[in-house]
Every structure is written in structure tokens, then in C-alpha cells.
Amino acid sequence: MAGPIFKEVADKVYASSIGIHKEINEEIATQNVSVAPLTKGGSQKDLQLVLKSLGIPVTGNSKNDWVTTSSKKNSVDLKGKNFRSDVLPSVVGLAVEDAIFLLENMGLEVLVKGKGTVKSQSITEGEKVIAGNKIILELS
């Protein structure tokens, strides 16, 4: 009868005691990351802040507020993305939060299917924006 209780207490102690995991922590600290992480397009300001705090070099600085990204071997390349308020943009490749922000500010009702990055949109890029229309974003 004491076995299950001891196991529960031991699991909690092991999970909450950082010192027990010293070997794992030392191994992680010695790993050298030489490949830039996979990133999603979005707000240039936010991306610059995060990448700088992680020590990841950024190339292709743009004057645009919104950018698309592509990961290179040791850096992340930013390319500006222009949006007009009367024409539907392509939000493919953007994080879902950024896509929703942009489309709702244009007056569209956004429906989302899936999780992750925007893979496709139900209204074609370049069409005239009509406030109140619904757009469906398929995520990957």
C-alpha cells in the first residue's frame, strides 16, 4: 500500500529538483546551435526583438511594418510585405495571430481551420475588400 504513495512523492521530488538533472543541463549548455530557427512572417518589430534577444543575425532589413521570413544557415532573412486597406493581401506564411489582426482590421470576419501557420485562404489575394465578408484561413 505504501508503494504507490512513495512513487507519487518520488516523482514530484524528481520533477521539481533541478539539481538532480545536472548532467542533462550541462549537456544542453554545451550544444552549439549553428542553424537559424524556422520563423514565421509577421510584425518586423516583434521579429527583430526576438531574434536579437536570441543572438540570431537578421538580414534584409525592410522599412515595412510586416515581413515574410526565410531561414538561412546562420541568419533569418526578412522581406517587406506591403498591405493596402482596399485590396485583400496574401496572408499565407504568416502566423495566424498576425493574419487575423490584419484581416479583421480590414473589416473581414475571419474563420480559422487547423493550427499553425496560414497555408491557404478562401478569398484570393488581390480581390477588393468588402467589409463584413467572411474569409476562411486553412492552417498547417
Mean pLDDT: 81
Strand count: 7
- Alpha-beta content class: alpha/beta
Largest sheet: 4 strands, mixed
Describe this structure in words.
The protein is an alpha/beta fold. The chain contains four helices and seven strands; from the N terminus they run H-H-E-H-E-E-E-H-E-E-E. The chain has three domains: 1-31, no CATH class; 34-82, no CATH class; 96-139, no CATH class. The chain has helices at 2-16, 22-30, 44-53, 96-105; strands at 42-43, 58-59, 66-71, 76-81, 109-113, 118-121, 134-139. The chain has a four-stranded mixed beta sheet with strand order 1-3-4-2, with helices on one face. A three-stranded mixed beta sheet has the order 5-7-6, covered by helices on one side. The mean pLDDT is 81.
Could you list some keywords that capture this structure?
140 residues; alpha/beta; 3 domains; 3-stranded mixed sheet; 4 helices; 7 strands
In short:
With 140 residues, this protein is of the alpha/beta class. The chain has four helices and seven strands; from the N terminus they run ααβαβββαβββ.
How are the SSEs ordered, and which strands pair?
Blueprint: H1 2-16, H2 22-30, E1 42-43, H3 44-53, E2 58-59, E3 66-71, E4 76-81, H4 96-105, E5 109-113, E6 118-121, E7 134-139
Parallel strand pairs: 2-4, 5-7
Antiparallel strand pairs: 1-3, 3-4, 6-7
